[in-house]
């Protein structure tokens, strides 16, 4: 079945929320790992997410080291292969930091806008903006315009509001105090207030 469209993706998220479960979300780095992730979901008869990071996109473009080109290549491969199977698969980009918004997220959102203008499906279903290294107000000052751009193209935006512990995608937060690793209820309300203003 094709990579899910916006309506099916929303249905997936609503079902998981209503039935209290989570989908597997598999980070891939190459076409081989993309194939393995798809085949794993099929073997488990499970819907799920496949995630592409900046590093995966960079790696997949070879010596060009172009994270956008590599991510587009991986996503297009997923669209073609997933079409041959019978599970719902959503494509997501993972952990885009503030310094990579203009070089990674915006070009990928623009690519979806270009595709939609000629009747093609969205390239990615969702993107993640990770502004967790910033004070919350500054984080939201980037997240709100990104959400507006995503909403115009029926793309879900995931926003990182708390600090992720450990090391991931070159971000090392191993020395962060434990009390900083969790988003407070006050922070969640502030995120809700900021993002819910976007139509």
Q: What is the gist of this entry?
A:
The protein is α/β, with parallel strands linked by helices and 199 residues long. The chain is built from seven helices and eight strands. It has a single domain, classed as TIM Barrel.
Describe this structure in words.
The protein has 199 residues and is an alpha/beta fold. The protein has a single domain, classed as TIM Barrel. It is built from seven helices and eight strands. It has helices spanning 6-19, 31-43, 54-60, 67-82, 101-117, 136-151, 185-195, and strands spanning 25-28, 48-53, 89-94, 96-97, 126-130, 156-160, 166-168, 171-173. Helix 2 (31-43) runs parallel beside helix 4, helix 3 crosses helix 4 and helix 6 packs parallel to helix 7 (185-195). The protein is globular. The model has no long low-confidence stretch (mean pLDDT 93).
Keywords:
three-stranded parallel sheet, alpha/beta, 7 helices, 199 residues, TIM Barrel
